[in-house]
Amino acid sequence: MTSDNQSNEIAPLTDPGIPAHLHRKSDLDPKAAKKAERQVGILFIISALGTILFIYSYTFMSEKIFIFLPVLGNSNAKQLFLGLGMAISLFFIGMGAVHWAKTLMPDNEVVAQRHELRSEEVDREDFVKTVKEGAAAAGLGRRSIIKRTLGVALGLSGLTPLLLLRDLGPLPKDDFSKTSWEAGTRLVTDPGDRPIKPSDLEIGAVAQVLPELPAGKERKLEDIGKDAVLLIRIRPAEFQLDAERLSWTHEGIIAFSKICSHMGCAVALYEQTTKHLLCPCHQSTYDVTRAAKVIFGPSARPLPQLALALDAEGYLVAKQPFTEPVGPSFWERDSS
Amino acid sequence: MNFISRYRRSKFFGPALLAAALFVLGTSYSVASATTFKAVTPSNDKTTLIAEGKEIFARGCSSCHGLNLEGGAIAPSLIGVGAASVDFQVGTGRMPMADMSVQAARKDPIYNEAETAALAAYVASLAPGPAAIRNEDLAWERSGDAAEGGQLFRSNCSMCHNFAGQGGALSQGKYAPSLMGVEAKHIYEALITGPQSMPVFSDKIITPAEKLSIIKWIKAAESEPNLGGASLGRTGPVTEGLLSWSLGIMALIGVAVWITAKAK
Amino acid sequence: MSKSERVAGTVANYVDERTGAAKWLKKNLNKVFPDHWSFMLGEIALYSFIILLLTGTFLTFWYDPSMQEVEYEGSYQPLSGLKMSAAYASTLHISFDIRGGLLMRQIHHWAALLFMVAIVVHLLRVFFTGAFRKPREFNWILGIGLLTLGIVEGFLGYSLPDDLLSGTGIRIAEAIIQAIPVVGSYLAYFVFGGPFPGEVFIPRIYTVHILLLPGIFLALITAHLMLVWYQKHTQYPGPGRTEKNVVGYPLMPVYMAKAGGFFFIVFGFTAFLGAVASINPIWLFGPYTPAQITAGSQPDWYMGWLDGLVRMAPPLETHAFGHTISWNILIPALIIPGILFTGMALYPFIESWMTGDKREHHLLDRPRNAPNRTALGAMSLTFVLVTLLNGGNDLLATHFGLTINQIMWFSRIGVLVLPPIAFVITKRICLSLQRSDRELVLHGKETGRLVMLPHGEFIEIHEELSPEKKWTLTAHEQLPPLEIAQENQAGVRNPKGLRAKLQQYASKSHQEQIEKPSAKDVLELGDGRH
């Protein structure tokens, strides 16, 4: 159907052919050519000066010099001149070469013929024949046992590299659902590791907290990535919580997992006036007074709330572990 | 208007006209919104200070915050906010507010230092609250630890104010302001009073010594020269991307045009 | 014979006697390349890649791909004494204790950004001029592959310093892996060697970043270039340029000097950027820990559109039978990019299906002469632009007095509404431009000079176009839409039914054109004054 289409083409205008070659000044006037040559030379010399600037800056310039420049501000002279030296050195080699090519190398346009990529009909037929003969000689079509077993073998062998990757990591088991928070774990400041009493927090105050470490244990980033908690104190009357969630707070102090339930960033952007928590990564917004209900953005779940209690010494502790996995969703998560 | 008609057909005419119009609009707006206040010269005596503060308050603040600091429909109560809060809000020019936008912006203070002190004394005299801080009392240069301050800053501040204290967006048009050029005492006062959207950072959570470290880090970031060249606003990869799409590729395309243009 | 000519002769002789390459070299050194600025965009990408290899090698001499915790003792005071990963500490070491180290880091990063910019701009040129048509479909697919790999490679490199910003990026990448149904949590554990962030991630991506991906890049780029070489470059329509020839300059010496010179210019310019503009100041970000975050957490621009998509996603999750599927992650981070890239890769075949055109094309289209394609391109660009803007919504909000909520809603609606509008507008513009081309060819160019005719009428003098210009404006061919039989003679519906209908519709839409002037039209008009 395509070949029919072309016959519909209207009579085209005539192609006037490649326009006549226009000579450059440097082609006609030896003086202009000489001038162009000098220009190229100057460009190469500027490049050489750039290299010298580079060497000088590298070897002799102190790191401690700062110079003030418009736009750049107060800049480190060594870094600046090293870079400028290198830039000049390279840039003007290029400028010189291009200027040389443009003014002094032949600029006659050349026409080369294209050849259709498709091979000659004879070659194509030969090729098809060769493939057919080869296939016939190998007998793949006839020997079905070979064909099938080869398929099985090849398919199975693909498992080898996959299996070899198995030891890249352990199985997750129920890791995603566990944090270091246990009933009675003290909340301590991050950084500082100081336990917190309710009286330490004024109304409107926040604290970034982590679980207290058992003696002799080091804090790993993997743990922080699940344990980080944000402590917020508001007026108790402002809570709109059900009885259970309200019992998880203490005198207006409420604790949420700081790991965003969307993609795991630290949700620590607390607006005191609106009582909203905002995640700076994707702008999910949570309402603190309503148990971190999502009020804007892509997150689909509230932040898990940590139940609070006081220990014998009056410090804030977790009443119980988190009742749901913290952080982003995963297939095995039972969110219903 | 003869010259306008002469250049009207130039391709630069449209953009130039637009720029001129914007300039006129911008300057007239800033002239219009600037307001002048009569200066008062309060004395040092405590009771006269309070009395003068009361007078300034009645004149400049009471229409929104009420004659007895009780607050109103558009302004919060100031009972118990303390001198620190007044010193921060008035000293950074946030109060009195110029317009009723989502939040008070930092601007040139309208009351001078003495007037601010009088206002603070008056507000503090009615109900106790955190006391104002003097720059001299903050020994951040001597006792602060910038590295520790940086850690604290990244844990407690950078989520709103950005990694280098340049400020950032909050929800519904509110924003965390830039911390560049803010006086040490105002940073300290903000930490203990929690102005506007900012929460309070109690002394037991971030100790006074740690607060000094935070100030030291902010000051270090503020005075840090541009170690790698133009800072591009210190706002992360967005401006870098903009530069690579504007100057970056445009300059190289310009060179490509030059390379392929036929020499004369 | 000058001395240098003698030396050249000796070298050529030496090489040929040992390789017999004279015949092949002779042919290829005279290879003709058409000259146009837009043909150098791919070169920018190629040269950026070479710059990346060179500067990257320099960086590996000091970079330590380890997440081992160390205490920083280098010369950058505001971090001194802090605990951090060896990767971050060694990046600080390169920046502040190796002369020229910061410069090399900055050149490397700027070159990476420019690499991606150049790839995209090159892709746009190829798309809008129809250079992907037969026989270049494979090269188009190779190019899409390079673009995809470039995004991955860039993201991995951005992650290597293990600073607060890039750590946040990896955290998000982990969440995406974790969200994959059924196998997500297992995959995440395999990739990170256990819980996030673990201690193996940086060394692993280092190997991928400096060995595996650059290797694949080299192979693909070589194939990409060999195909360009073998198939010969396309050219713009113009006098003397046909489907059967290629008009330009020979490789030796003009093109070699220009291309070689351009490499130095690109390198020099990137060094200039590295000297004057700070990029990725990781010392300000601080070391990564999962409990910290910064306002304005953004990826590099080539990931920005993805981030913008994720930000605008509706809060959808399916909770059923004890399992969770996060549509709010899967749709923006995997499904839409998957559709976009697959669609892009298949476009040459889709277009050829729409036009029914299976012939070779070496003459490029002017974008206006393929209105449907140009409109599709504008539509996709609008989509990406809206998502990209939303990726920077927090900065837009603070700098232009807007709210992130407004921008988010604008993007959520705009991403669906604006692309179709862009399609319609672009197509109209293309057709108008075709109409104006037709006018130009038939009636010449308006000169702005008014002349009073003897009987008092004023007319504007129109200057006739040169034959070259006329030819350039009319050299393209205009195919009529396909005519696909919807039913056969017996009245039985075409067995391909719906597909045939769709193809018919697509073809009609694709071939919408303003008829170009024919030789007859021009003749009838005579002197061109009207």
Can you characterise this structure?
By secondary structure, chain A is of the alpha+beta class. Chain A has helices at residues 2-6, 25-28, 30-60, 77-103, 121-138, 144-157, 159-164, 221-227, 243-247, and strands at 66-69, 73-76, 110-113, 187-189, 206-211, 229-233, 253-257, 269-271, 276-278, 285-287, 293-296, 305-306, 308-310, 316-318. Among the domains of chain A are: 25-103; 178-318, Rieske Iron-sulfur Protein. Helices cover 35% and strands 15% of the residues of chain A. With 264 residues, chain B is mostly helical. Among the domains of chain B are: 46-126, Cytochrome c-like domain (Cytochrome Bc1 Complex, Chain D, domain 2); 135-223, Cytochrome Bc1 Complex, Chain D, domain 2 (Orthogonal Bundle). Chain B has a two-stranded antiparallel ribbon. In chain B, helix 5 crosses helix 10 (184-193) and helix 10 packs across helix 11 (208-223). Chain C folds into 2 domains: 35-365, Cytochrome Bc1 Complex, Chain C; 444-525, no CATH class. Chain C has helices at 3-19, 22-29, 41-60, 86-97, 101-128, 137-159, 164-179, 184-192, 201-231, 251-276, 282-285, 301-312, 327-355, 371-391, 393-400, 404-443, 467-474, 497-510, 519-525, and strands spanning 32-33, 69-71, 83-85, 245-250, 318-320, 323-325, 445-452, 458-463. In chain C, the strands form 4 sheets. Chain C has a two-stranded antiparallel sheet. In chain C, helix 14 runs antiparallel to helix 16 (404-443). The model of chain C has no long low-confidence stretch (mean pLDDT 91). The chains are: A alpha+beta (336), B mainly alpha (264), C mainly alpha (530). Chains in contact: A-B, A-C, B-C. The A-B interface holds A 22, 24-26, 66, 71-76, 79-80, 83, 98, 102-103, 107, 189-192, 194, 196-197, 199-208, 232, 266, 268-274, 276, 278, 280, 283, 285, 296 and B 148, 151-152, 155-156, 159-160, 168, 170-172, 174, 194, 196-202, 204-207, 210, 225-231, 258-259, 261-264.
